[in-house]
């Protein structure tokens, strides 16, 4: 694909390839940004993956080009366009609204640490990615995945009728559809892993606290994490290296997790033979058995064979204690604990804003009640918000739920991993997400194929806290052995008829 007279194929280009093109004068950052802006203008009316573009993106690209011309290289992301989820604060001309009109006009007092570090690494913040509004917390059971009032309904770029998942739907759709080089999402329960899986992207959910959550709209300090969504494992690792680390503004969590960061960063674990010697656990019930004899199940068995051929040691037919309870967030108490955390966290966030039309959860509920045509509250409701707002005097109950969730972690996933000396658990699709969510554990999903309808699915590698090096080695080894990802074809029968 030619670009402004330059012979460099931008579509599917990795960070490494882009930097090589920069150094060979085959591409400028301005040309790259213009390409993505044009693609957003063309496809976003259909995909609804971007809430707004940065009006300064082209000027920032020009600055990056000038810096490079002057021999100044800021970092691994210098000149790389990034979309960040519309819950991650940016101190610029863009808003941070969680996809809701209730926060339009709000101004963050300072930039999120994650974005500060992206900029320090030379990244160009291209815009804000769409999401399931308010992380779907407004109405967990009724709000559609990928829908927000500001952006509309996010659309899967492979099959229009397929679930884009969420809440970081726009971040995943954007990289999959080549609207941007790389993106940043957040994950509390499934918000990085699920949309990445469903949109044929690589999603890296870091250990909670590995990346600062400062000036990111919160749900739960126990479960919230910020991480990259990209097209390749290597791009995810490049982004992670820039954003991970201790932050006094998120002191407790980042102090606890920054000790996991290896000297020299994470790039050293991008090894093609990364699967060699890895002990990978397989929990067939219910992660595999629930697939029955589907295309995905058959592909999973083929991938297990590939893992073995690449030197992995598979420990099969394992069990996680109380797995059925863990997988039901209403039954385990996870949802109740999340709503309680949100009730306490959101007023603190809102009060910290430089200016805002709402300053409390009650204000947000009132805004939605007064603007049902904007927020479609008559259709999707806000029962999650109302339930959270009505929580009072039940601190002891919440403490008991959190203690129970910790017990499920220790007696379930942690025990299985430790007893079997596993480096990672490998599972198809997204069913294992609650295991990671309630424990703050890391995971990486890698594109693994497409079902009989053309809908993507991924291979999920998950592990104990701080095991990102092992997960990266495993995921990269699998990716390089399979190269399963392919870009969406917007003129394909699946797309046209989906």
TrEMBL record:
Amidase domain: which residues? 32-471
Give one Pfam hit by family name: Amidase
Superkingdom of the organism of origin: Eukaryota
Q: What SUPFAM superfamilies does UniProt report for this protein, alphabetically? A: Amidase signature (AS) enzymes
Protein name per its UniProtKB record? Amidase domain-containing protein
């Amino acid at each position: 694909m030619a670009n402004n007279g330059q012979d460099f194929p931008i579509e599917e280009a990795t960070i490494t390839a882009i930097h090589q093109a920069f150094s060979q004068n085959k591409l400028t950052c301005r040309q790259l940004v213009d390409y993505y802006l044009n693609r957003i203008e063309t496809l976003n009316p259909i995909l609804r993956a971007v809430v707004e573009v940065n009006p300064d993106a082209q000027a920032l690209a020009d600055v990056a080009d000038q810096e490079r011309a002057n021999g100044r290289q800021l970092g691994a992301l210098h000149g790389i366009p990034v979309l960040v989820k519309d819950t991650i604060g940016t101190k610029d001309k863009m808003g941070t609204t969680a996809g809701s009109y209730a926060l339009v006009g709000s101004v963050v007092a300072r930039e999120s640490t994650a974005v500060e570090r992206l900029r320090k690494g030379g990244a160009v913040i291209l815009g804000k990615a769409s999401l399931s509004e308010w992380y779907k917390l407004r109405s967990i059971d009724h709000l559609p995945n990928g829908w927000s009032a500001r952006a509309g309904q996010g659309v899967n770029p492979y099959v229009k009728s397929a679930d884009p998942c969420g809440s970081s739907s726009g971040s995943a759709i954007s990289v999959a559809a080549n609207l941007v080089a790389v993106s940043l999402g957040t994950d509390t329960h499934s918000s990085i892993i699920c949309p990445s899986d469903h949109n044929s992207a690589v999603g890296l959910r870091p250990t909670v606290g590995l990346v600062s959550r400062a000036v990111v709209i919160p749900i739960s300090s126990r479960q919230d994490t910020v991480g990259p969504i990209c097209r390749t494992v290597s791009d995810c690792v490049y982004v992670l290296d820039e954003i991970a680390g201790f932050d006094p503004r998120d002191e407790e969590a980042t102090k606890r997790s920054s000790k996991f960061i290896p000297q020299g960063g994470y790039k050293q674990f991008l090894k093609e033979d990364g699967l060699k010697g890895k002990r990978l656990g397989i929990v067939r019930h219910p992660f595999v058995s629930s697939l029955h004899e589907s295309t995905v199940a058959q592909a999973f068995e083929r991938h297990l064979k590939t893992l073995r051929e690449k030197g992995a040691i598979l420990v099969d037919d394992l069990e996680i204690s109380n797995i059925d309870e863990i997988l039901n967030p209403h039954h385990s108490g996870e949802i109740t604990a999340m709503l309680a955390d949100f009730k306490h966290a959101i007023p603190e966030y809102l009060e910290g804003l430089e200016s805002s039309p709402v300053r409390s959860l009650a204000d947000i509920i009132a805004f939605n009640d007064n603007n049902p045509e904007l927020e479609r509250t008559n259709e999707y409701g806000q029962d999650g918000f109302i339930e959270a707002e009505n929580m009072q005097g039940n601190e002891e109950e919440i403490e008991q739920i959190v203690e129970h969730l910790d017990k499920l972690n220790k007696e379930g996933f942690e025990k299985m991993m430790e007893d079997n000396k596993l480096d990672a658990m490998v599972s198809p699709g997204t069913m294992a997400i609650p295991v990671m969510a309630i424990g703050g554990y890391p995971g990486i999903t890698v594109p693994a194929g497409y079902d009989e309808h053309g809908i993507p699915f991924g291979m999920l590698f998950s592990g104990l806290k701080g095991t990102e090096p092992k997960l990266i080695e495993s995921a990269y080894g699998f990716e390089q052995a399979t190269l399963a990802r392919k870009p969406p074809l917007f003129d394909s029968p699946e797309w046209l008829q989906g």
